[in-house]
Design goal:
Pfam families: PPR, PPR_2. Residues 1-29 are annotated as: Disordered. InterPro entries: PPR_rpt, TPR-like_helical_dom_sf. Keywords: Repeat. The protein is an all-alpha fold. The protein has a domain at 393-478. Helix content is 65%, strand content 0%. The chain contains 25 helices and no strands. It has helices at 33-46, 53-64, 74-80, 91-103, 107-119, 134-147, 151-164, 171-183, 187-199, 207-219, 223-235, 242-254, 258-270, 277-289, 293-305, 316-324, 328-340, 347-360, 363-375, 382-394, 398-410, 417-430, 433-446, 452-463, 470-476.
Amino acid sequence: MKKLVRVKALPKAKTPSSDLPLPSPPTDGDVSPAHYARFLDYVRTHWAPPFTPESLLRFLKWKVQHHPSFSHFDFHLFTWAPSLDSFRHSHSTFQWMARTLAATHRLSQLRSLLHFIAANPCPCSPHIFSCPLTHPIFQASILAFAKAHKLHHALSAFHSMCKLIDGKPNVAVFNILIHAFVQRASLNHALHFYQHMQFTHRVKPDVFTFNILISAYSRNSQFHLALHMFHQMQHMGCQPNVVTFNTLIRGLFREARPEEAIGMAREMLQLGFALSTVTCDILVYGLCKEGRVLQACHLLLEFSQNGVLPKAFDCFPLLEVLCGEGYVMRALEVVYELWNGGCAPSLVACIVVVDGLRGLGKTGEVSRLVERMLEDHMVLDLITFNCVLRDICDARRTDEANRLRLQALSKGLEPDDMTYRILVMGYMGEGDRVKGELLVNEMLDMGFIPDLASYNQLMSGLSNCRRPTCLQVNKFDH
């Protein structure tokens, strides 16, 4: 007897809510009636009772925000929602809407939102206290205005926030505005606001405040005031950070005071701060610009020997200047010293030194450097690698060149027909027919020989070659 199988009923499709009154079309945009009608159908279908701030937030966050055609209606729906019976926005809807408007650069609507918040405080707080999220909401909005260079809107939001919150604004808000003044080249306004922060609001500046002002003084050719601000910072018990020292070191180089810049870097180390890659870049660039490239080498080697040179530091700019000014062997020394100290050079830095050594005809040094690079899994680009192989083969060291090829193959090199032809011609010049024929057959297997005539030409050249005398080999071997 067959068992009856209960068939599950299909889920019913959502029906539009008839209890929801509908908002009127927005007046600040060109919206077609048909498009807006589709949006209203979408709202009726997906936003069902109860109509609360929590349900509105879910609808905006998970439905409207991700809809390609309706996402721009979020603020319109947000401003219409309070017209519903017993509906009142919470700090969660305020915060989400503020972040969304800031992220999508709708600053005029963000201003309207802040005015709405000021007129309709969050219901979560008692009458004598403000909502704890009011400050973060306004701070994020002030940052958005400052990034868009809408400084007057940022100041308006700041003054509105000061009236709404309990206590003092935090120092981060002041830093946003001071930095905005500096970016606008209004240093005097930045300093006035800095004084306003301390004496009117009784807010203590932090390291970011001082860094902004020190950088501003330095960029405005007022480095003596930057140093004064640095001393004031220490007097107020605010510890500098690596950005502070980097700014001062750069300012000293700008003032053509390289010895004091080096002294500042050493003072930084004595105070227990670690050098950053930016610090080293500033020192190298500043010294090279002053024509003190050898002093820059000495300083970096000193840092490396003392174990304070950052592992991620790239010495490429220094090596490029050294090789450009003819100090190729000094550049090679720097590479090995830093390498042995745990600061491996970049591939580009090594290529600069390889090219410099090739220009001097230092084939042996080139071979040793390339071998060291391969040990660290650094493979030259194919053009440079082929040039290196040609130099080694021209020095009648084809076995050494072929060994480098095999080592590079194991590290990921993809040779071309030129790579093999250089080696074949090298063995042809040394009269080593057997090894040359092995390479020709390998070329054939890899598809580097297009036709039989090319194959026969290479084999014929190898069959006619003669091994040089022992005296000739020794002559070219050194």
